[in-house]
Amino acid sequence: MAFSGALTLTDLNDFITPAQACIKPVEQTNKAEPKDPGAASTQIQVDSSGSYYEISASGAGSQPAGKKLETAQISLNDCLACSGCITSAESVLITMQSHTEVLNALRGNPEKGAPAHRTPVLSIAPQSLASLAAAVSSSSARPADPARVLRRVAAFCRDALG
């Protein structure tokens, strides 16, 4: 079956190429120290815990001074605000599947006996269960395996969400 000669399909891809620079600036809460015109350059070092330090030598023969740098935090909302990485259709899907939409759907669901009641079905990825188990294990004396965490999450969902 052929397409009409009057209709042509062009540029069906709505992928936006990633921007060169992120639009979310790094917020600096401390003021920059005034520097001498002949001051030495700085370097960034990473210690064993993964913290970043700005190392600078204030003058000839002096000990290097280190200042801990803050970690930049970017959320999914920040990424969606810039011009890149995902298509516009994907951003609509992500917005439609947010936690607020799920909570609104659960609140709008009639009681169990009502004919319009819909049974909510939730799924949890194995990676999410493993991450939750690691978080629970790090904050308690008893290690938590993913199966135990799944039982706890399922009980919470039945009690709190319906």
Strand order of the largest sheet: 1-2-3
| Count of helical regions | 5
Overall shape: elongated
| Helix residue percentage | 25-40%
Terminal CA distance = 50 Å
Indicate the structural class: alpha+beta
Strand-residue fraction? 5-15%
How would you characterize the largest beta sheet? 3 strands, antiparallel
Can you tell me the residue ranges where pLDDT is under 50 for at least 5 consecutive residues?
Answer: none
- The radius of gyration computed from the alpha-carbon positions, rounded to a whole number of angstroms, is 26 Å
Number of strands: 3
Give the overall average pLDDT.
Answer: 73
Keywords: 4Fe-4S, Iron, Iron-sulfur, Metal-binding
Family: Belongs to the NARF family.
Protein name: Cytosolic Fe-S cluster assembly factor NAR1
GO molecular function, one term: metal ion binding
Descriptive report:
Among the domains are: 77-108, no CATH class; 123-161, no CATH class. Helices cover 33% and strands 9% of the residues. It has helices spanning 76-81, 88-96, 99-108, 126-138, 146-161; strands at 42-46, 52-56, 65-68. The protein has a 3-stranded antiparallel beta sheet, with no helix packed on it. A hairpin with a 5-residue loop joins strand 1 and strand 2. The longest helix has 16 residues, at 146-161. It is elongated.
List keywords for this structure.
162 residues, alpha+beta, three-stranded antiparallel sheet, 5 helices, 9% strand
Secondary-structure blueprint of this entry?
Blueprint: E1 42-46, E2 52-56, E3 65-68, H1 76-81, H2 88-96, H3 99-108, H4 126-138, H5 146-161
Antiparallel strand pairs: 1-2, 2-3
Helix pairs in contact: 4-5
